[in-house]
Design goal:
globular; 32% helix; Alkaline Phosphatase, subunit A; 2 domains; 13 strands; alpha/beta; two-stranded antiparallel ribbon
Length: 435
Amino acid sequence: MTRNNRRQFLRGSGVALALPWFESLAKAATKPPVRFATVYFSNGVEPEHWWAKGQGASMQIGPGLSPMMPHREDFTFIRGLFNKQAFISTSPHLGRAPNLLSGAKVSLDPADMRVGTSMDQVLAQRIGGQTAVPSLALGIEPNELRLEDGLSMVYGSCISWVTPTKPATKEIYPARTFDLLVGDGSGRKLDRSILDSVRQETRDLQPKMNGGDRTKLGEYLESIRDIEKRIERAAKDERLEGWRPTLDKPNMARPADALPQDVPEHMKLMLDLTVLAFQMDKTRVVTLMLNNDLSQMNFKFIEGVKGALHLDLTHNQKAAAAEAMYLKTNQFHVAQFAYLVDRLKKINEGEGSLLDSSMLLFTSNLFDGDSHGADQMPVLLAGKGGGTLRPGQVLDYLEKGDDQRQACSLYLSLMDRMGVKLDRFGDASTRIMEV
């Protein structure tokens, strides 16, 4: 009897059985799914200290990358990729931040806020139904509603866009993120009685409604059914066959309701929640903004950085003292990425680690923040993508033609590995095969 027949027989008996996990059947388990995360930091890097050469354990890296020293075999350093629409934009910041993951043109018409659907949201739309939460858009700083050079700072607050005109809702509260992961996927607790009550009330209303209202009610009931599906998915603690998550319950305490006031603590919590989301398989797609573009984050918590705002440190006209502090902020951001890599690397998922099943993109919208340079992007790519990536490399595209160094070519390659194959994305129709 095939496995499919066995599953059909169990369903066909008319009885729902909650079976235990059988170790003998676990040997036939499929591979873990591939997860994808983008960790973004604003305002670029100190170019002099951002470099790598060699490969694997013998790779040499610049001072800006020093926190990644223990993980040289776990990431690929990519030089020279860029978004052409960001490069040619006349807006040095807001024309180069929201299109990070789409390569789209940013509308500079204040009456028409428009970018492009980001690649994380393309993934969410195609494969997000496989998990309780289609995707997570996380951040540390809130969305800003003020104007900068006549443009909305929403552009500088969001790298994840559900549609060309709608940014994904960015969550900055660790407690709310935790509730999203341990509940039904929408922040609610798993409670069927509420849904049953709602359904009964709508049945009583139907005879009193006209055709148009019945249509609206039908749409509402469909949203209720979606919540039910999330509950059913979240409640599947055991599986008869196939891969299953290594965690079925959180292994960290629920964070406090208040927004953390300590920046390193806040970042660590959001990184831990990213790990939790992947380990529980609550989502396979995450974006995390360590800060907004034009960030007002104060880095005085770093030793040697005295009360300076990030924006001021990165726009320093090459002042020696400020450059030294800029390097420290680069190292701090890289240390956050190194923390995520290290945590995933230590979680076993059978034949490999959670890092082996992940693709982690670490990048910024600018290269040289001081000159607003968008001729290339700083890019690290960590993980093995389920065995499809070859970390430990240095790839250099800077001297190649524009059509060979599109960031969107990398995005097409990564989406392929998530099972989403597109003929074209952004300004690219070719893949980067070397990764």
